[in-house]
Specification:
Length: 453
Amino acid sequence: MATKKPAAKKTVKKTVKKAAPAPKAKPIAKKAAPAKPAPKRTVAKKQPAKAGAAKKSSAGKRAYIMHVTESVLPQVHPHVVPPTGRTPAVFKGLPAHLQPVKVEDGRVYMTPDSHTDLPSLIEMQLQSYRWFLTEGLKELLEEITPITDFSTKKMELRILGHTFDAPKYDPATCRRRNLSYEAVMKGHVQLINKETGEIKEQDVFLGSIPLMTENGTFIVGGIERVVVHQLVRSPGVFFSKMTDVTKYHAAKIIPKRGVWLEIETDRKGIIACKIDRKRKIPITQLLRVFGYDTDDKILSLFADVTKDKDFILNTLEKDSARTVEDAYQSIYRRIRPGDLATPENAKQLIDGLFFDFKKYDMGTIARYKLNRRFKTNVPSDEEHRVFQVKDFTEILRELVRLNNGEGIADDIDHLSNRRVRSVGELVQNKYRVGLVRTERIVKDRMTVMDQET
């Protein structure tokens, strides 16, 4: 009997031990139960997000359709074309000499020549942009070439040419897909390491250039746009009467790119000029820095045009600078007041303003007009399109003649003193701004980069 009792205790303990894991299994089942609806809630949250996205896409499509409908609105009232061979009713009752000679394909011909070709009204647009893609871009790239670092001793970059890749899509596809009709422009670049003599050449990406369609338009984002011509003041020299002293005259030298020179005559007969609308400078100071260093040389320039009143002598008496160095410093103080004026700094500034082609360009049109006015034959190349001292002296001589009552002033509003700035030139000016920024970035990177890389 003693052996049976411990056996019974063992069975009781075993049953207790077996019953213990049973309640542990129940909470596991309870925890698993709420885990099932959790993914259902997340799915329910995602569904309204998809519906909202569908609404946005449909709204975008509607806006696009509305834009297309706006583009076809002018076709709502088309021009009524009369049928072939039928004379329009407007000619009924008119005399015989006012009747049309022929009616063909809805067109009325009043002369026997029925095959007159109409000129292309967009030919100027097409030729101008064709010039930009060939000659205009070439001029811009040659202006910034070569690009060197600030010390001009380490690196040098030269652009040797440019090419265009074929456009990916035609104009019709660009309109349909809301794309821009453009082509990738690449430049053939040569990098020279001046210290090691190493030369590298490769093609680099210079940007995407918009292309013009056969209708003279550009497609930007699927929309056709047009660049309108501008009627601007032509570069060159213009003579006009002074507003306060009508018996005296003024002159303006307007370059294609660079500072303007405004020459005026005051009541006392003193001729002064403004460089880029700064303070007035006696004209004799500019003559000194341009090579006429003595008073005798300056007076000899105007000996044959001086009459009763000597304007140049009055200006010399007013001028405080007697040497070339004094003239340089006086001009520098008026252009940059507050800076330290030395002859070296002043000479560097004036040479950069007037004799650096990157900063000053009279342009071919101004060069042509100056040659025609003063009967000269100066070539229109890069060397002679900067400021010319001979032109400056001729302008001053003409101004003295006008002050003496000889000749007639120009009409600034006359169409002969205006010119049309076409699409090629307008795009060229905008592209020049981007190239100047690119040149500055390249110089900065050349200065700080490691030459081995």
